[in-house]
Amino acid sequence: MEKKLKIKFNSPVVLIFVFVCLAATLLGELTGGKITHLLFMTSHTSLTNPLTYLRFFTHVFGHSGWEHFVGNTAYILLLGPMLEEKYGSRTLLEVITLTALITGVVNYLLFWNTGLCGASGVVFAFILLSSFTGFKSGEIPLTFLLAALIYIGQQLLSGVFVADNISNLSHILGGLTGAFAGYVLNRKKL
């Protein structure tokens, strides 16, 4: 007897995150970026504006275009399910939320003329968090050290030598958030 294959909603936080990013990017494209600027991009607006606080979290959903969206979601779909299985949906949601808040607030405070949108900080958090999957007491995974060296080192070099529109600081902050979360989460289990 042949078993039928069925599609499984295997990683709810990751899948919902990607679907919200897809919807936000689609709305941004359909409105010529107006919705992205209004809801899914940090900007230095007044602290009396409630959207300022909302965007500290929602900027991770918006993307500057399809290439930006695909690049980020490919990593999220590759790394996220493994992380959600290991740490649980709630913990992964907390990592995403903390990464969004840290990158949003720091961008608001340091870069008054630069908006921030996209899930790149979350991607870097996932990359460094995933390198802690083999963490054991008294050991630092070589995979973590190499990932940190490659990804954070590359961001530092790009920030100094390449003039582009990419927020290298949000990548670094996302990576540090993921590294901190990986260390704390795995240390608790020992």
Structure explained in plain terms:
The structure is a single chain. The chain has helices spanning 12-30, 34-39, 50-58, 66-87, 89-110, 120-130, 142-161, 168-188. With 190 residues, the protein is an all-alpha fold. It has a single domain (12-188), classed as Rhomboid-like fold. The chain is globular and about 50 Å long. The model has no long low-confidence stretch (mean pLDDT 86).
Summarize the structure.
The chain has 190 residues and is an all-alpha fold. The chain has helices at residues 12-30, 34-39, 50-58, 66-87, 89-110, 120-130, 142-161, 168-188. It has one domain: Rhomboid-like fold.
Domain count: the total is 1
The radius of gyration is: 17 Å
Q: What portion of the residues fall into strands of 2 or more residues?
A: under 5%
Main beta sheet strand tally, sense and closure: none
Any idea what the CATH superfamily is called?
Rhomboid-like
Q: Flag low-confidence runs.
A: none
Q: What string, H for helix and E for strand, traces the elements in order?
A: HHHHHHHH
Measured between the Cα atoms of the first and last residue, the distance is 45 Å
